Amino acid sequence: MYGRQFATMVGMVLLSFLMLGASFATLSYQYTIREKKDTLERNARYIADFTSNAVITGGSTVWQTASFQSYLNSVARVSDCHVLVSTPDGVILYATSGDSQLAEMENVPLSRQKVDEIVGGSFMGMTTLDGLYDEARYLVGLPVNSASGHLQGLVLVSCAASNISGMWQDLSAILLVTALAVVLIAAIISSVTSMRQSQPIKEIAAAARQFGLGELNVRVDVGPRRDEVGELAEAFNAMADSLSKSEQRRTEFIANVSHELKTPMTTIAGFADGILDGTIPPEQERHYLEIISSETRRLSRLVRSMLDLSRLQSDERAAQQQFDISETLVRTLVTLESKVNGKNLEVDAQLPDEPVPVWGDQDAITQVCYNLLDNAIKFSREGGVLGIGVSVKGPKATITISNEGDTIPEGEQLLVFDRFHKTDHSRSADRDGVGLGLYIVKTILNSHKETITCTSEDGVTKFVFTLTRA
């Protein structure tokens, strides 16, 4: 990932500069040549105009005078070019580079073709003037005509090709240095950003490998970053926390199951051995056999609850159906009538006159009602009030089951739905329960995508859960 991002960034910058440089080089070269050509043509035009307007005195031509030759030298020096003047037939009479006179070119005739092209209007292009120059130069040639239109001679201005491309080469060198500097800066920035982006992913991969080895306490240091990689690291840490909690719950579950199974089995084995080896007197054997029977039934309830829990967690429940939750709640309460009467409880039913149809697995919801009512009866004080209620609000039906008894501490209220959790940590007060009833309630309602809450204040404990109305 680091290599790909680095190569992509540097490649994009380099490609951008290559395209920009090619465009700049082409345009600047064309512009430089055009400017130089215009300059040469303008200088040749000045000389031709000046010559055609000059007065010929003493029978000599104007370009043979010292003043005119000085003028030609100045033009050649300022424009860094060669200036040549010739007769109408093409014989070069005077040639100068500005700094010196080009005597070797004087009295040399031009080719008839060049003369005809210049006399015909003008000549512009690259040429060696039929070998006068060692290398091709850009040349502009114009005829010199008098005011009456009589041909007086020819003017030629030439410039070396290196002079034309000199400025373009300087600009290209500046562009190249700038491009290299920008590519270097881009490479450094890309290297830093790519490394910063790939480092958390490497840490996540390393943490995942440690997870595979069972080290669930490893976390990825996100730091202050809040980009997509930071979100990935946070999601990984959240997953790690969830896995760690799941492992902790699994360990606690095994420990709790072992404890729940060990206690009654130890009791059964101890009393059975006492009866067999005669430690327990014959007149007390019936009492201890009743204890053995009670512990056996407790083991049976534990196994049955664990089977129910396994079925619920594997989502093996019936398809949802429509039923009246008020009727289900009352019918469940009737099955617990003997327990209600055994504690002399007063039932306060707040039920609507009309049926309240809801959607759900009726058998599973009946088990929810049974577990909550049985739990409320079990922990109610003698002669207290057992409350049941159903209310409707929007698309949800709210079911409330309350009892009067001991207040559940605030720190315990969120734990009552945990597996094997009992408010009596000695596990001696509630000998009939196995600590799975409320956990099964929570599991069933979670599978229905419903909620349940527990509140306990001033001796009144309420369990409130919701169902979707049909």
The ordered string of helix (H) and strand (E) elements is: HHEEHEEEHHHEHHEEHEEHHEE
Radius of gyration: 53 Å
Could you state the oligomeric state of the chains shown? single chain
The strand line-up of the biggest sheet is 2-1-5-4-3
Structural class: alpha+beta
List low-pLDDT spans. Answer: 55-60, 424-431
Based on Cα principal axes, name the global outline: rod-shaped
Give the second-level CATH assignment, the architecture of the largest domain. Answer: 2-Layer Sandwich
CATH class of the largest domain, anyone? Alpha Beta
How many DSSP E strands? 12
Major sheet, described briefly? 5 strands, antiparallel
CATH topology of the largest domain: Beta-Lactamase
From the structure above, extract its key features.
five-stranded mixed beta sheet, 470 residues, rod-shaped, 54% helix, 11 helices, Helix Hairpins, five-stranded antiparallel beta sheet, alpha+beta, 3 domains
Short description, anyone?
The protein has 470 residues and is of the alpha+beta class.
Task: Summarize the structure in words.
The chain is an alpha+beta fold and 470 residues long. The chain has 3 domains: 2-166, PAS domain (Beta-Lactamase), CATH 3.30.450; 216-316, Signal transduction histidine kinase, dimerisation/phosphotransfer (DHp) domain (Helix Hairpins, Orthogonal Bundle); 318-468, Heat Shock Protein 90 (2-Layer Sandwich). It is built from 11 helices and 12 strands. The chain has a 5-stranded antiparallel beta sheet, sandwiched between helices. A 5-stranded mixed beta sheet has the order 7-9-10-12-11, with helices on one face. Helix 4 (161-212) packs parallel to helix 5, helix 5 (228-276) packs antiparallel against helix 6 and helix 7 packs across helix 9 (362-378). It starts with a helix and ends with a strand. Mean pLDDT is 80; it is low at 55-60 and 424-431.
